[in-house]
Amino acid sequence: TEDLPPDAKIETRIALTLARSLPALRSRLADLARDPTRRLSALVVDLFGTDAFDLCAEFGMKPYIFFPSTAMCLSLFLHLPDLDAKVSCEFEDMDEPVRLPGCVPLHGGDLLDPVQDRKNDAYKWVLHHATRYRLAEGILVNTFMELEEGALKALQRPEPGKPSVYPVGPMVRAGSGEGGDDGSECLRWLDEQPRGSVLFVSFGSGGTLTYDQLIELAHGLEMSKQRFLWVVRTPHDTTNATYFKSSQAERDPLEFLPKGFLERTKERGLLIPSWAPQIKVLSHESTGGFLSHCGWNSVLESVVHGVPFIAWPLYAEQRMNAVMLTEDLKVTLRPKAGPNGIINRTEIAVAIKGLMEGEEGKRIRNRMKDLKDAAARAVSEHGSSTKALSEVALKWKSQSVKMHP
Predict the structure, then answer these.
(1) pLDDT tens for residues 224-246?
(2) Mean pLDDT in residue range 181-204
(3) Which Pfam families does this entry report, sorted A to Z (predicted)?
Protein backbone atom coordinates (compact mmCIF):
# COMPACT_ATOMS: atom_id res chain seq x y z
CA THR A 1 0.00 0.00 0.00
CA GLU A 2 2.99 2.31 -0.41
CA ASP A 3 1.25 3.85 -3.43
CA LEU A 4 -1.54 5.24 -1.20
CA PRO A 5 -1.50 8.85 0.02
CA PRO A 6 -0.06 9.34 3.54
CA ASP A 7 -3.50 10.24 4.93
CA ALA A 8 -5.19 7.04 3.68
CA LYS A 9 -7.22 5.54 6.51
CA ILE A 10 -6.23 2.24 8.07
CA GLU A 11 -9.43 0.54 6.81
CA THR A 12 -8.46 1.43 3.23
CA ARG A 13 -4.95 0.06 3.77
CA ILE A 14 -6.25 -3.21 5.24
CA ALA A 15 -8.92 -3.76 2.57
CA LEU A 16 -6.51 -3.01 -0.28
CA THR A 17 -3.79 -5.23 1.18
CA LEU A 18 -6.23 -8.15 1.41
CA ALA A 19 -7.59 -7.56 -2.10
CA ARG A 20 -4.06 -7.52 -3.52
CA SER A 21 -3.20 -10.76 -1.73
CA LEU A 22 -5.80 -12.80 -3.68
CA PRO A 23 -3.38 -14.16 -6.32
CA ALA A 24 -1.12 -15.50 -3.56
CA LEU A 25 -4.13 -17.01 -1.77
CA ARG A 26 -5.38 -18.63 -4.99
CA SER A 27 -1.94 -20.15 -5.56
CA ARG A 28 -1.83 -21.57 -2.03
CA LEU A 29 -5.35 -22.98 -2.30
CA ALA A 30 -4.45 -24.61 -5.61
CA ASP A 31 -1.48 -26.30 -3.90
CA LEU A 32 -3.76 -27.58 -1.13
CA ALA A 33 -6.39 -28.77 -3.62
CA ARG A 34 -3.78 -30.90 -5.40
CA ASP A 35 -2.90 -32.69 -2.16
CA PRO A 36 -5.01 -35.90 -1.99
CA THR A 37 -4.67 -35.98 1.82
CA ARG A 38 -6.40 -32.61 2.25
CA ARG A 39 -10.04 -31.64 1.81
CA LEU A 40 -11.03 -28.04 1.31
CA SER A 41 -14.48 -27.42 2.79
CA ALA A 42 -14.64 -23.81 4.00
CA LEU A 43 -12.81 -20.51 3.73
CA VAL A 44 -12.94 -18.21 6.76
CA VAL A 45 -12.04 -14.59 6.05
CA ASP A 46 -11.58 -11.48 8.18
CA LEU A 47 -14.19 -8.72 8.24
CA PHE A 48 -12.47 -6.95 5.29
CA GLY A 49 -11.62 -10.15 3.40
CA THR A 50 -14.83 -10.86 1.49
CA ASP A 51 -13.17 -10.40 -1.92
CA ALA A 52 -11.74 -13.88 -1.29
CA PHE A 53 -15.29 -15.27 -1.56
CA ASP A 54 -14.72 -15.24 -5.33
CA LEU A 55 -12.31 -18.15 -4.83
CA CYS A 56 -14.84 -20.31 -2.97
CA ALA A 57 -16.76 -21.48 -6.04
CA GLU A 58 -13.49 -22.16 -7.83
CA PHE A 59 -12.32 -24.52 -5.07
CA GLY A 60 -15.69 -25.85 -3.88
CA MET A 61 -15.55 -24.17 -0.47
CA LYS A 62 -18.26 -22.53 1.63
CA PRO A 63 -17.57 -18.86 2.50
CA TYR A 64 -17.49 -17.81 6.17
CA ILE A 65 -16.51 -14.64 8.04
CA PHE A 66 -14.82 -14.36 11.42
CA PHE A 67 -16.03 -11.05 12.88
CA PRO A 68 -13.71 -10.05 15.76
CA SER A 69 -15.96 -7.35 17.21
CA THR A 70 -19.45 -7.10 18.68
CA ALA A 71 -22.78 -8.46 17.51
CA MET A 72 -23.95 -4.83 17.43
CA CYS A 73 -21.18 -3.88 15.02
CA LEU A 74 -21.92 -6.96 12.90
CA SER A 75 -25.56 -5.86 12.77
CA LEU A 76 -24.42 -2.48 11.45
CA PHE A 77 -22.39 -4.18 8.69
CA LEU A 78 -25.41 -6.25 7.65
CA HIS A 79 -27.71 -3.21 7.63
CA LEU A 80 -25.25 -0.69 6.16
CA PRO A 81 -26.25 -1.22 2.49
CA ASP A 82 -29.88 -0.45 3.40
CA LEU A 83 -28.83 2.51 5.55
CA ASP A 84 -26.65 3.81 2.71
CA ALA A 85 -29.58 3.65 0.27
CA LYS A 86 -32.06 5.38 2.59
CA VAL A 87 -29.92 8.13 4.15
CA SER A 88 -28.59 10.94 1.96
CA CYS A 89 -26.74 13.03 4.57
CA GLU A 90 -23.76 12.12 6.72
CA PHE A 91 -24.90 9.73 9.45
CA GLU A 92 -23.86 12.14 12.22
CA ASP A 93 -26.35 14.69 10.80
CA MET A 94 -29.35 12.35 11.03
CA ASP A 95 -32.27 13.63 13.11
CA GLU A 96 -33.22 10.15 14.31
CA PRO A 97 -30.95 7.60 16.00
CA VAL A 98 -29.88 4.46 14.15
CA ARG A 99 -31.97 1.55 15.41
CA LEU A 100 -30.32 -1.82 14.87
CA PRO A 101 -32.47 -4.85 15.78
CA GLY A 102 -31.99 -5.89 19.40
CA CYS A 103 -29.57 -3.02 20.13
CA VAL A 104 -29.72 0.21 22.08
CA PRO A 105 -30.40 3.20 19.72
CA LEU A 106 -27.23 4.85 18.40
CA HIS A 107 -26.56 8.44 17.45
CA GLY A 108 -25.16 8.53 13.91
CA GLY A 109 -21.98 10.17 15.21
CA ASP A 110 -21.32 7.12 17.40
CA LEU A 111 -21.13 4.71 14.46
CA LEU A 112 -17.71 3.33 13.62
CA ASP A 113 -15.08 5.78 12.33
CA PRO A 114 -14.84 4.72 8.66
CA VAL A 115 -18.55 5.40 8.03
CA GLN A 116 -18.36 8.98 9.33
CA ASP A 117 -17.14 10.43 6.02
CA ARG A 118 -19.12 8.88 3.18
CA LYS A 119 -16.95 10.49 0.49
CA ASN A 120 -13.80 8.85 1.85
CA ASP A 121 -12.38 5.67 0.32
CA ALA A 122 -12.53 3.99 3.74
CA TYR A 123 -16.34 4.26 3.71
CA LYS A 124 -16.49 2.88 0.18
CA TRP A 125 -14.40 -0.13 1.20
CA VAL A 126 -16.53 -0.80 4.29
CA LEU A 127 -19.72 -0.56 2.22
CA HIS A 128 -18.21 -2.82 -0.47
CA HIS A 129 -17.51 -5.57 2.07
CA ALA A 130 -20.76 -5.01 4.01
CA THR A 131 -22.67 -5.57 0.75
CA ARG A 132 -20.95 -8.95 0.36
CA TYR A 133 -21.65 -10.15 3.94
CA ARG A 134 -24.91 -11.78 2.84
CA LEU A 135 -22.92 -13.99 0.46
CA ALA A 136 -21.45 -15.77 3.49
CA GLU A 137 -22.74 -19.16 4.57
CA GLY A 138 -22.13 -18.19 8.18
CA ILE A 139 -20.49 -15.57 10.40
CA LEU A 140 -18.55 -16.41 13.57
CA VAL A 141 -18.62 -13.46 15.98
CA ASN A 142 -16.38 -12.94 19.01
CA THR A 143 -19.06 -12.44 21.64
CA PHE A 144 -21.39 -14.59 23.75
CA MET A 145 -25.11 -14.80 24.35
CA GLU A 146 -25.20 -13.44 27.90
CA LEU A 147 -23.23 -10.36 26.85
CA GLU A 148 -25.26 -9.39 23.76
CA GLU A 149 -28.46 -11.38 23.97
CA GLY A 150 -30.70 -8.85 22.21
CA ALA A 151 -28.41 -8.29 19.23
CA LEU A 152 -27.58 -11.99 18.84
CA LYS A 153 -31.19 -13.16 18.97
CA ALA A 154 -32.07 -10.59 16.30
CA LEU A 155 -29.13 -11.70 14.13
CA GLN A 156 -30.10 -15.36 14.52
CA ARG A 157 -33.72 -14.75 13.51
CA PRO A 158 -34.14 -16.58 10.17
CA GLU A 159 -34.48 -14.33 7.12
CA PRO A 160 -34.08 -15.16 3.43
CA GLY A 161 -30.50 -14.54 2.33
CA LYS A 162 -29.19 -13.83 5.83
CA PRO A 163 -26.13 -15.84 6.93
CA SER A 164 -26.22 -18.00 10.05
CA VAL A 165 -24.54 -16.24 13.00
CA TYR A 166 -22.50 -18.16 15.56
CA PRO A 167 -21.38 -16.48 18.80
CA VAL A 168 -18.07 -18.20 19.62
CA GLY A 169 -16.55 -15.82 22.20
CA PRO A 170 -15.01 -14.72 24.34
CA MET A 171 -11.85 -15.51 22.40
CA VAL A 172 -9.05 -13.80 24.32
CA ARG A 173 -5.34 -14.31 24.64
CA ALA A 174 -4.31 -16.69 27.40
CA GLY A 175 -1.15 -14.66 28.01
CA SER A 176 0.59 -11.57 26.76
CA GLY A 177 3.57 -12.36 24.62
CA GLU A 178 3.97 -9.06 22.78
CA GLY A 179 6.19 -6.19 23.78
CA GLY A 180 9.84 -5.71 24.52
CA ASP A 181 9.93 -7.29 27.98
CA ASP A 182 7.83 -9.42 30.30
CA GLY A 183 6.50 -6.46 32.28
CA SER A 184 8.11 -7.74 35.47
CA GLU A 185 8.60 -4.22 36.89
CA CYS A 186 4.90 -3.39 36.89
CA LEU A 187 3.95 -6.87 38.15
CA ARG A 188 6.37 -6.52 41.08
CA TRP A 189 4.83 -3.14 41.83
CA LEU A 190 1.33 -4.63 41.72
CA ASP A 191 2.43 -7.34 44.17
CA GLU A 192 3.05 -4.59 46.73
CA GLN A 193 -0.39 -2.93 46.39
CA PRO A 194 -3.57 -3.76 48.37
CA ARG A 195 -6.09 -6.09 46.78
CA GLY A 196 -8.39 -4.41 44.21
CA SER A 197 -6.86 -0.97 44.79
CA VAL A 198 -5.18 -0.17 41.46
CA LEU A 199 -6.71 1.46 38.38
CA PHE A 200 -5.06 0.20 35.19
CA VAL A 201 -4.95 2.94 32.53
CA SER A 202 -4.27 1.80 28.98
CA PHE A 203 -5.55 2.75 25.53
CA GLY A 204 -4.65 -0.47 23.74
CA SER A 205 -1.99 -1.14 21.14
CA GLY A 206 -2.85 1.86 18.97
CA GLY A 207 -4.51 4.50 21.15
CA THR A 208 -2.98 7.93 21.71
CA LEU A 209 -4.19 11.15 23.35
CA THR A 210 -3.60 14.76 22.36
CA TYR A 211 -1.19 16.77 24.51
CA ASP A 212 -4.04 18.73 26.14
CA GLN A 213 -5.93 15.52 26.94
CA LEU A 214 -2.81 13.86 28.33
CA ILE A 215 -2.37 16.78 30.75
CA GLU A 216 -6.02 16.57 31.89
CA LEU A 217 -5.76 12.81 32.42
CA ALA A 218 -2.62 13.24 34.52
CA HIS A 219 -4.30 15.87 36.70
CA GLY A 220 -7.46 13.74 36.96
CA LEU A 221 -5.46 10.74 38.17
CA GLU A 222 -3.70 12.92 40.72
CA MET A 223 -6.95 14.52 41.95
CA SER A 224 -8.64 11.12 42.36
CA LYS A 225 -6.05 10.10 44.98
CA GLN A 226 -6.35 6.49 43.77
CA ARG A 227 -3.53 4.08 43.02
CA PHE A 228 -2.87 3.71 39.31
CA LEU A 229 -0.75 1.90 36.75
CA TRP A 230 -0.63 4.02 33.59
CA VAL A 231 0.69 2.88 30.20
CA VAL A 232 1.61 6.35 28.95
CA ARG A 233 2.32 7.20 25.31
CA THR A 234 3.72 10.21 23.52
CA PRO A 235 0.79 12.54 22.71
CA HIS A 236 -0.41 12.93 19.14
CA ASP A 237 -3.25 14.68 17.33
CA THR A 238 -4.33 11.36 15.74
CA THR A 239 -6.13 8.97 18.12
CA ASN A 240 -4.61 5.83 16.58
CA ALA A 241 -1.16 7.30 15.88
CA THR A 242 0.69 4.36 17.41
CA TYR A 243 -0.21 2.33 14.30
CA PHE A 244 1.85 4.75 12.20
CA LYS A 245 5.51 5.56 12.73
CA SER A 246 6.33 9.21 13.41
CA SER A 247 9.29 11.14 14.78
CA GLN A 248 7.07 12.40 17.60
CA ALA A 249 6.33 8.81 18.68
CA GLU A 250 10.04 8.24 19.34
CA ARG A 251 10.14 10.86 22.11
CA ASP A 252 9.94 9.85 25.77
CA PRO A 253 6.27 10.21 26.79
CA LEU A 254 7.26 11.15 30.34
CA GLU A 255 8.63 14.45 28.97
CA PHE A 256 5.07 15.62 28.30
CA LEU A 257 3.63 15.16 31.80
CA PRO A 258 2.79 18.10 34.09
CA LYS A 259 5.73 19.49 36.02
CA GLY A 260 6.19 17.64 39.32
CA PHE A 261 3.57 14.98 38.49
CA LEU A 262 5.93 12.01 38.86
CA GLU A 263 7.23 13.25 42.21
CA ARG A 264 3.75 14.02 43.60
CA THR A 265 2.28 10.62 42.62
CA LYS A 266 5.27 8.32 43.14
CA GLU A 267 3.80 6.76 46.31
CA ARG A 268 0.62 5.54 44.60
CA GLY A 269 1.26 5.55 40.86
CA LEU A 270 3.50 3.77 38.38
CA LEU A 271 3.98 4.94 34.80
CA ILE A 272 5.11 2.49 32.14
CA PRO A 273 6.07 3.94 28.73
CA SER A 274 4.25 2.41 25.74
CA TRP A 275 3.48 -1.17 26.84
CA ALA A 276 2.43 -3.40 29.75
CA PRO A 277 1.40 -7.11 29.85
CA GLN A 278 -2.34 -6.41 29.85
CA ILE A 279 -3.58 -9.95 30.56
CA LYS A 280 -1.23 -10.31 33.53
CA VAL A 281 -2.23 -6.89 34.86
CA LEU A 282 -5.98 -7.52 34.51
CA SER A 283 -5.69 -10.94 36.17
CA HIS A 284 -3.66 -9.56 39.10
CA GLU A 285 -5.55 -9.41 42.39
CA SER A 286 -4.39 -5.82 43.05
CA THR A 287 -6.12 -4.54 39.89
CA GLY A 288 -9.53 -3.14 40.78
CA GLY A 289 -10.45 -1.10 37.71
CA PHE A 290 -9.55 -0.44 34.09
CA LEU A 291 -9.66 2.88 32.24
CA SER A 292 -9.97 1.59 28.68
CA HIS A 293 -10.41 2.78 25.10
CA CYS A 294 -13.11 0.08 24.71
CA GLY A 295 -11.33 -1.87 22.01
CA TRP A 296 -13.26 -5.15 21.88
CA ASN A 297 -10.31 -7.36 22.83
CA SER A 298 -9.73 -5.20 25.91
CA VAL A 299 -13.43 -5.30 26.80
CA LEU A 300 -13.51 -9.11 26.58
CA GLU A 301 -10.28 -9.41 28.59
CA SER A 302 -11.80 -7.17 31.24
CA VAL A 303 -14.99 -9.26 31.31
CA VAL A 304 -13.10 -12.57 31.50
CA HIS A 305 -11.18 -11.31 34.54
CA GLY A 306 -14.16 -9.52 36.10
CA VAL A 307 -12.50 -6.08 36.15
CA PRO A 308 -14.94 -3.12 36.05
CA PHE A 309 -13.95 -0.25 33.82
CA ILE A 310 -14.26 3.33 32.70
CA ALA A 311 -15.11 3.79 29.02
CA TRP A 312 -12.90 6.20 27.06
CA PRO A 313 -13.44 5.39 23.34
CA LEU A 314 -10.98 6.77 20.78
CA TYR A 315 -11.45 5.32 17.27
CA ALA A 316 -12.74 2.42 15.10
CA GLU A 317 -15.97 0.97 16.60
CA GLN A 318 -15.06 1.98 20.16
CA ARG A 319 -17.83 4.60 20.54
CA MET A 320 -20.40 1.94 19.61
CA ASN A 321 -18.88 -0.37 22.21
CA ALA A 322 -18.98 2.37 24.84
CA VAL A 323 -22.66 3.11 24.16
CA MET A 324 -23.57 -0.57 24.48
CA LEU A 325 -21.55 -1.04 27.68
CA THR A 326 -22.75 2.18 29.31
CA GLU A 327 -26.39 2.45 28.22
CA ASP A 328 -27.40 -1.15 27.57
CA LEU A 329 -25.34 -3.38 29.86
CA LYS A 330 -24.68 -0.54 32.35
CA VAL A 331 -21.29 -1.98 33.33
CA THR A 332 -19.11 1.10 32.82
CA LEU A 333 -18.77 4.71 33.86
CA ARG A 334 -18.13 7.12 31.00
CA PRO A 335 -16.73 10.60 31.66
CA LYS A 336 -18.13 13.24 29.30
CA ALA A 337 -16.05 15.44 27.02
CA GLY A 338 -16.62 19.19 26.93
CA PRO A 339 -17.50 21.26 23.83
CA ASN A 340 -13.79 21.29 22.87
CA GLY A 341 -13.71 17.48 22.81
CA ILE A 342 -11.51 17.32 25.93
CA ILE A 343 -12.53 15.40 29.06
CA ASN A 344 -11.52 17.69 31.91
CA ARG A 345 -9.61 16.66 35.02
CA THR A 346 -12.57 17.00 37.40
CA GLU A 347 -14.77 14.76 35.24
CA ILE A 348 -11.95 12.21 35.12
CA ALA A 349 -11.32 12.31 38.87
CA VAL A 350 -15.04 11.89 39.65
CA ALA A 351 -15.31 8.86 37.34
CA ILE A 352 -12.19 7.22 38.80
CA LYS A 353 -13.28 7.79 42.39
CA GLY A 354 -16.79 6.60 41.54
CA LEU A 355 -15.50 3.35 40.05
CA MET A 356 -12.93 2.59 42.75
CA GLU A 357 -14.86 3.75 45.85
CA GLY A 358 -18.46 4.72 44.99
CA GLU A 359 -21.78 2.87 45.19
CA GLU A 360 -22.09 2.85 41.40
CA GLY A 361 -18.64 1.25 41.26
CA LYS A 362 -19.80 -1.51 43.61
CA ARG A 363 -22.85 -2.20 41.45
CA ILE A 364 -20.70 -2.37 38.31
CA ARG A 365 -18.22 -4.64 40.10
CA ASN A 366 -20.99 -7.09 41.01
CA ARG A 367 -22.37 -7.02 37.47
CA MET A 368 -18.90 -7.69 36.05
CA LYS A 369 -18.55 -10.69 38.36
CA ASP A 370 -21.79 -12.07 36.88
CA LEU A 371 -20.46 -11.52 33.35
CA LYS A 372 -17.15 -13.15 34.27
CA ASP A 373 -19.04 -16.26 35.37
CA ALA A 374 -21.21 -16.15 32.23
CA ALA A 375 -18.11 -15.88 30.02
CA ALA A 376 -16.58 -18.93 31.70
CA ARG A 377 -19.83 -20.88 31.19
CA ALA A 378 -20.02 -19.89 27.51
CA VAL A 379 -16.64 -21.46 26.71
CA SER A 380 -16.99 -24.44 29.04
CA GLU A 381 -17.36 -27.95 27.60
CA HIS A 382 -21.14 -27.68 27.22
CA GLY A 383 -21.31 -23.88 26.97
CA SER A 384 -23.20 -21.90 24.33
CA SER A 385 -20.09 -20.72 22.46
CA THR A 386 -18.49 -24.17 22.53
CA LYS A 387 -21.70 -25.64 21.08
CA ALA A 388 -21.85 -22.95 18.38
CA LEU A 389 -18.26 -23.60 17.31
CA SER A 390 -18.90 -27.34 17.34
CA GLU A 391 -21.97 -26.85 15.13
CA VAL A 392 -19.87 -24.95 12.55
CA ALA A 393 -17.10 -27.57 12.67
CA LEU A 394 -19.62 -30.35 12.04
CA LYS A 395 -21.00 -28.43 9.04
CA TRP A 396 -17.49 -28.09 7.63
CA LYS A 397 -16.84 -31.78 8.21
CA SER A 398 -20.12 -32.68 6.51
CA GLN A 399 -19.28 -30.41 3.56
CA SER A 400 -15.89 -32.09 3.25
CA VAL A 401 -17.45 -35.56 3.21
CA LYS A 402 -19.98 -34.52 0.53
CA MET A 403 -17.17 -33.22 -1.65
CA HIS A 404 -15.09 -36.37 -1.19
CA PRO A 405 -17.47 -39.34 -0.81
Answers:
(1) 999 999 999 999 987 765 555 45
(2) 94
(3) UDPGT
Alpha-carbon distance of 169 to 301, in angstroms, equals 11
Backbone angles phi, psi at 292, to 5 degrees: -130, 150
Q: Are residues 213 and 328 in the same domain?
A: yes
Choosing from 135, 167, 199, the residue where a domain stops is 167
Express each pLDDT in 308-353 by its tens digit.
999 999 999 999 999 999 999 999 999 999 999 999 999 999 999 9
Produce one character per residue of 59-92: b if its CB has 16 or more CB atoms within 10 Å, e if not.
Answer: eebbbbbbbbbbbbbbbbbbbbbebbeeeeeebe
- Radius of gyration of the CA atoms of the chain, in A: 22
pLDDT value at residue 403: 55
Pick from 388, 379, 374, 317: nearest CA to 139: 388
Q: Is the peptide bond before 170 cis (omega within 30 degrees of 0)?
A: yes
Same domain, 252 and 358: yes
Mean pLDDT of the chain: 94
Long-range contacts formed by 245-253: CB under 8 A, 24+ apart: none
Instruction: Based on the fold, state whether residues 75 and 134 are members of the same structural domain.
Output: yes
**Are 48 and 129 in the same domain?**
yes
Contact between 134 and 163 (Cβ < 8 Å) = yes
Which domain, by its residues, includes 61?
A: 10-167
DSSP designation for 267: T
The answer on 362 and 303 residing in a single domain is yes
- pLDDT of 353-390, one tens digit each? 999 999 999 999 999 999 999 999 999 999 999 999 99
Are the C-beta atoms of residues 49 and 126 closer than 8 Å to each other? no
Residues 264 and 296 in one domain: yes
Determine the Cα–Cα distance for residues 370 and 48; give it in Å rounded to an integer: 33
Q: Are residues 204 and 83 part of one domain?
A: no
Tally of domains within the chain? 2
Residue 134 and residue 111: Cα distance in Å, rounded?
21
